[in-house]
Amino acid sequence: MTFDLFDPLPPDADVPASEPLGPGAVVLRAFAREVAPSLLAAVGEVSASSPFRHLVTPGGLRMSVAMTNCGERGWVSDRTGYRYDALDPESGRPWPVMPTSFLDLAVRAADAAGYPAFAPDACLINRYLPGTRLSLHQDRDELDLRAPIVSVSLGLPAVFLWGGLRRADRPARVRLAHGDVVVWGGPSRLVFHGIAPLAAGDHPLTGRERINLTFRKTR
Ligand code: MD3
Ligand code: FE
To answer: What is the reported pTM?
Structure first.
């Protein structure tokens, strides 16, 4: 498989700095492409301390996405509910410190999208293998819903399902490729969203995986 399948634009292509994706959602195509190798190296270091794991929903279902976190807090789910926790429940220790490369990228992306001084205290790291999916949900465990969420897609491309403010709204499908960064704020902050089952592939940097970083201000 060739590099072109995943990265149709050369690194110096003259792409717009940002394009509106919908109300309050801005896509920065390939914004993270140059720093992707260092982001992925940092994912390896985080997951060496707090390994990827399949969380269980309050309903008792094992999630098909594998997750870990870094930063002051991490998102966790178990039979008692969803929450942000300062400790990794697997180790009983704090989550790994957010790498400087993560924080720098997230702040620059938020700034480029019109959200100055973004101060994320959590980064949820999701790992997808072929067939992995994330069903429609809202992200509403964060206390300050005025802050955006910044998402970074790495490795294999995915189909993002972008619904409305009601679960029943039929989702639009948006392709997210390696290096794409999306900033979700304003009216898009509470939309239902998910990821369609990942198609098989082989990416030069991640192999058969897709990694997604989501930066959040939880308090
Ligand atoms: C729109 N992650 O971690 S990233 C999640 O690709 C999550 O792993 C997906 O949904 C992934 O919660 C999608 C894009 C995204 C993330 C959070 C959002 C879009 C969002 C929160 C509100 C609205
Ligand atoms: Fe989400």
So the answer is: 0.93
62 is in an annotated binding site: no
Q: Name the residue at shortest CA distance from atom 5 of ligand 1.
A: 214
d(CA 20, CA 18): 7
Return the residue whose CA atom lies nearest to atom 7 of ligand 1.
Answer: 194
Q: What band does 18 get if pLDDT is binned at 50, 70 and 90?
A: confident
The response to whether residue 177 sits with its C-beta less than 6 Å from ligand 1 reads no
pLDDT attached to residue 164: 93
Residue 75 among known ligand-binding residues: yes
Pick the CATH number of 19-216 from 3.30.230.70, 3.40.1170.60, 2.60.120.590, 3.40.30.10: 2.60.120.590
